[in-house]
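Thread: Modeling a multi-component assembly for a lab meeting

Hi all, long-time lurker, first post. My supervisor asked me to bring a structural picture of a complex we are working on to next week's group meeting, and I have zero experience with this. I have the sequence lines for every component (627 residues in total). Could someone generate the structure of the whole assembly? Inputs are pasted exactly as I received them:
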Amino acid sequence: MTAELFLQTVVNATYAASYMALIAVGFVLIFGVMGVVNFAHGELYMAGAYVVVALYADQGFPFFVAVAAGLVFVGLLGLLMELALFRPLRDNPLGGLIASIGFLLILQTVAVLGFGVRMENVPPSTQEKITFMDGAVLTYQRLYVILAAIVLLTALWVFLRKSKFGWALRACSQDREAAALQGISINQTARIAMFIGAALAGVAGALTAPLVSPTPFMGHSVVVTAFIIIIVGGLGSLEGAVLVAILYAFVHTFVTTIYDGTLANIVGLLLMLAVLIVRPTGLFGAKERA
Amino acid sequence: MPRSEDKATFLWVLGFALLAVVLVALPHLLSFSQQEILVLLVINVLLVCSYRLLTLTGEWSLAHAVIMGVGAYASGLCAKDLGLPVPIAMVVGAATAGFLAFLLSFPLFRMKGFYFLIGSFAAGEVIRLMWKWSDLTFLFGGPKGIKRIPPMPDIFSIDFYEPVNYYYLCLIVVSISLLILYRIERSRIGLTFHAIHWQDKLAESVGVDTFRYRMLAFVISAFFAGLAGALYAHYVGAVAPNRFDVEEMVYILIWAIVGGTATFYGPIIGVIALTVLNEVILRSLGVDEMRPMLYGGILIISILFLPDGLESLLPKIKGWFAGRKERRDALADQPAE
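Re: Modeling a multi-component assembly
Sure thing. I ran the full set together rather than chain by chain. Output:
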């Protein structure tokens, strides 16, 4: 492996880590506060990408307007899920999972009916790129994803640690009844968590739309990746999700570059099984929350 | 009261005889394409019932579709590449699926609840990706899978290429399998499964090796899922990795949840009701593209408004009838005394 290829792979892995972290953190946030494995998370990502397809590629709005619209739209989808599905099923965690599968099928069908099953081609919003001295290239399109991940995840971290809502959110994910007894509104916290969690997936989809050729079925591989990351990181650990997203992205990108993509997926999954055997609650997970 | 017991047994026998007549006569009332769906439906009944056996222990696996695929691949490969007779290949396929479950239970049953759910999903995906992997194409055929799997040979000059005849074969195999599954559930082993589900710490404290029983449930359920896969492979004649993907798994989950898993017949009601809905009602509406959406909508509605599944309707109907009968009996008894 030449130095140039190595550096290029590092750059690619950093980009992959960024969007994986955005998705996985949203997934963990939803699981922590709602207690639901959101199977539709990949389709929320897909919805974000399709907002960019509709507004930017088809209607010609500026790229960042479309991305902002994607963030808000998918956040609202999250609110809808909370209101219509997860709130009535709060005492039935398996029910929430099944309902999210139903929601996934609906979102997929809407995308198929609206845009067709073929791949969408989203033109890049900029041709600018950074060339490092050994020839490795980072396009601005990818840089946006990396910057968005850093800014949004830092903002989320500050929000969770410093603000009153953040305290309430963390209290809810630790013990819902006790939090309710302290006067924290469970519904309010659930709404905030669902909006943030979904919006993070939406913004990841919106920003990567010009890079990945969206299809209505793109969510599947994304949700598998999110599963791996949160299981290895430990369900309910946000810091763990970020660290494992970085780790997984590097392993996956390097194996893909050296061998091939399928083997990279297999290695990722085996890595996860290995972690589960050694530490069944994940690397950063606290006690089990079943 | 021997008389009423005799009567109850008589009614059961009558009920099963009626059911048998209906099942035997059914394919002759259907069109050719409906007969093909019927064969798949019978296979799916076995699939979902085998799934239910694992859920008795309280664990929900997301690897069941892939395990069915293991049976299908193993059976297909044995018949095609090793030249084994198809019936033997089917048993080998089912046994392979069971053996795989045995191996998988060592890592997977270190987890419980959501961890198990997602862990089993990952394990299944690893297997599915192996089938797709380009380096193993010589064995599993890559993303296109295996084609031209030998069909069931004629026995006593019965042509099993005919859907009707294959339907009867599946019916016999599936009936026997269901009987075995039912007996297991009613045995001491089945009661232990229930105990592990509701009180696993208590079960452990009275000396039940919960790991072994979980493993046993997983292996049995995998064996019959593999058998369902083998029946499928030699009927369709081709298997491909995407046939056993997460979508198929979702269907199994939906059948089980919509039917309900508290009773033996719940998942069977679920798979029959949803297959009729999907293949007969939605197909006749002519909205092929919208079918997943309607399916998803039905899933959400049923989990919201019928969380215990279709099976929970049955006792209500029964209770209503019994209530009427009691009142009538009470009225009939009064003048006599």
